[in-house]
Structure formats: C-alpha cells, structure tokens
User: What shape does this take?
Amino acid sequence: MIKQFTRAMKLFRRGTVVLLVASLAYLAGPVFQVSAVTTTDSTRTSDWLAAQVGPDGAVNVPGETFSTTTQTMYVANGLAASGQHRDALERAMGYIALHVDDWVVNDGSGSTVAPVGSDLPERLGELILLVRTVGGDPTSFGSPATNLLTRVQALYGVSVFGFYGYQEPYSAVQDQSFVVMALLASGITPPSAAVQWIAGQQCIGGTNPTGALGGWQAFRANTGNALNDCDAPDSLNYVGADTNSTAFAVQALKAAGQTAAIPSALTFLHAAQTTSGPQAAGFPWFTGGDPDPNSTALVIQALLASGQSPTGGAWAVNGSSPFAILSSWQITTPGADFGSIYASWQPGIPSLLATYQGLWGLTLTAFPFPVLPAVPAPDAPPVVPTFTG
Assistant: This one.
C-alpha cells in the first residue's frame, strides 16, 4: 500500500559512462512512427477502458481512490493513444470539458508545493495534448470556455526563471516536460531556458553517482548557484535517478530537437532494464527494483521517440522485449476485468493507472500523440417526400 501510494504521488499528483554502444544504436536504429498500432492486446485494454465510461462521460472504477475527474482524464488519455472507441472518448471529453478546473487547479489535496488555487503545469500540459489529439481547440476548451495555452504560459517564471509553475520535489521534470511538449505540439516555441532547464537536470558529469549517470530524477535542487548531485537509484526508498523521469525528459527534448542528451539516457535505461526472471526485458521505476507495467510503457515511449525498437534489437532480453513483456501484466481471465492491466505489486487486481499508461506502450505511441481523424457525422435521415394529392 505504501509503495502504491508513493508511486501515484510521485508520478501523477500525481563519473564516466560507456556511451559507444548506445550512441551507435541511437544513430543506426530503425525509426519508428510515433503513432498508434492496433493489436489484440491493445484492443483488449481499449475495450476495458471504454467500458468504464458512463453515459455522462464520467469514470468511477470500483476500488480506485482518484477523483472522478482524474479517473476520466486517465481513461481519455488511454483511448486517445489507441484511437479506438471514439464514442466513449467523446463522452469522456464532454465530462472533462465541464470539469476543467477540477483537473488543473490545485485544490490542496495532493502533495504539492504550489499554492492552493493555482494552476498545475503538468495537468495543463497533459490536457492541452489531449485536446489537441482529439481535434479540439486548446485556446477555447471547456464550459465555460478557457484558453489553456494562455493559462500555462502564465505560469512561466512564477517561481524560478526558466520553469513553469512551482518546482515540485516529486515531479518537476515530468511537469516541465509535459508543458514543453504541449506548447510545441500547439505550434508554440517555448523559451530556450525552459528546454535547457530539462537538459540541465540530467545526471551527468561532476560527482554524480555512476548509477545515475545519463538519467533524470524527479528534481535536482540548487545549493547556491550549483545543482545538487543526483542521488543513486534506490528502489527501496524511491529516490534517485529513475526510468520514468528519464522517459518524459527524453520525449520532451526530442520534441524540442535537442538530442545531445539521448545517447547517455539510453545507456542509463539499458542499465536499468531487468535481465532475468519472468519479466526480463521489462523496466523498473528505479534500477534494481521489480519491473512494472507503467515504467515499461513509459520507457517504450522514450525508445520510440529516440528511434529505437522496443520490440527487439538491442532491447531484447532472453528472447523477449519490452513490448512483449508489457502484455504479461494484462488480465486475460474472462470476466469484468478482462483486458485491464494490474500493478506489479497487486497481481490480478485491475489498476486504472497501470492500464491507461500501459496502453501507451501497447499501442507504440509516444508524445505528442497523433491527431485523431475527425469522426464522420451521422448520415442524415432520408427525406420522405410529402404528397398532397
């Protein structure tokens, strides 16, 4: 229970290093299309997510403690990646449109340093990307309509130069990455300092511990005018450089055209990959920990953004791959849970958090998601001529 709470809080409020192999793989690897694919596994998961959407668009999964709006955002973000069940996705977006502030405004219930009542940058960024994916207008979304892009841009520099919002100790890299990706996907070039903030958080050089080199941790604070060293990955205490922060940073930097940091990031991810046991080829949150579906899916996204193959090649282990092992967490027993994905520490119990992020990996979809084609309008009823005699 402690692990599940800590993970949810961190993710969603939420030396020298050998670079040659990763560098060559990065330069020569196949380039994947960053768009959804449909497989039997992804369809099962999409089906389960769609089934959670009520007639009014709200999602309330039994046993989940997230708010209705948060659950609805999670399901919408999963279905947006797959492009399936557009009817359920549209209902969910309708509900979200009525509850924008419930999602983006800090109500004080989470573990944040942002003032109560302020907008949360990661949530704005995530919503902007979602609205764009479904073909909506992030400059006029919701009821009443609000300009999401103006709101997120207003957060620039409110606490620290080059940063949007407040530097959360458990998610600052993720927060900034989502904002940068959202702005770029919307045709807005973020300030170079905002992109450099992400690049500067990478654990490289100096006296950073070897196990952290090339990765990112949730946040590196400053002492004086210098960044503190990263912590070595610690899977028992959930500190240090981690695969999740690294995956978000890689996607944001790639979207911004800043690829210099990616080879060393791939080296870090290679070192974190599980090489033995039933989930070999999967990824843990922290190096040395147990692999889990969320981390595996996020790393798949980072690999796709980097032009790597998550289905084999350099990332194959014992005949398996990150893409193949992700499906091992899917529930395939017939019943109401069929198609959902469970958290690695709660086998057999559907996890909404694991399911919607797992679908990102199952569909081979990295950020920003491709814009979905417009849903055709229903055919007009036939005109029946009226005869008057």
